[in-house]
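Lab meeting, item 3. Inverse folding demo.
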């Protein structure tokens, strides 16, 4: 368990669209842009080895790019270097945070001052969802996977812990950026599961208020 006293006041920010990280989950990443290679090199020199994953906001073409204020910090738990100087890394989700201000400087990547208040639960034990109807959820999920032409290990789905199942699907399903952000900001596992179900049902309706596909 990551101690709260080790959480830094400033984080390097990796604004990767669609790459959602959640507490106690793992996210594999391929790092190849020079500025993010520099970010990783700097991160590996710190004691905490944390990188802040943040979703960019959906903005009109040509307008200034902006970041959502809430992201999730991940600790570099594994990395390997390819022969051409790129990195394959894994981030272990530690805690969500709120950006208070971006830090000006000469760094090629974004840094931000962050606050951790309000996300203390992220550093605690695995969350439970007492209202979880696994059978009904898996039936809905099977219809969604069929509609999206996705495959999975259904036996593993049936046996997975609630948090691992809900968080993994939230990270992996091909939702829009704002939907991913809503899943990130969900205050509890139950709320995230309810949001996930709503997004799946919406996708099964084809994104319109039509009868759910059978």
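The presenter then showed the designed sequence:
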């Amino acid at each position: 368990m990551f101690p709260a006293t080790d959480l830094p006041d400033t984080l390097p920010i990796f604004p990767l669209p669609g790459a959602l990280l959640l507490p106690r989950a793992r996210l594999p990443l391929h790092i190849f842009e020079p500025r993010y290679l520099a970010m990783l090199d700097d991160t590996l020199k710190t004691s905490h080895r944390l990188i802040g994953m943040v979703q960019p906001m959906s903005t009109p073409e040509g307008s200034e790019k902006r970041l959502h204020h809430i992201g999730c910090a991940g600790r570099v738990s594994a990395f390997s270097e390819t022969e051409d100087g790129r990195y394959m890394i894994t981030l272990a989700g530690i805690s969500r945070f709120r950006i208070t201000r971006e830090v000006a400087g000469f760094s090629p990547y974004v840094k931000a001052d962050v606050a951790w208040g309000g996300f203390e639960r992220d550093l605690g034990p695995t969350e439970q969802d007492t209202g979880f109807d696994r059978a009904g959820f898996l039936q809905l999920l099977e219809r969604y996977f069929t509609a999206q032409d996705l495959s999975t290990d259904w036996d593993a789905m049936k046996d997975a812990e609630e948090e691992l199942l809900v968080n993994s699907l939230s990270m992996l399903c091909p939702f829009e950026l704002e939907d991913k952000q809503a899943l990130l900001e969900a205050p509890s596992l139950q709320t995230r599961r309810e949001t996930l179900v709503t997004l799946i049902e919406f996708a099964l309706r084809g994104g319109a208020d039509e009868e759910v596909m059978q």
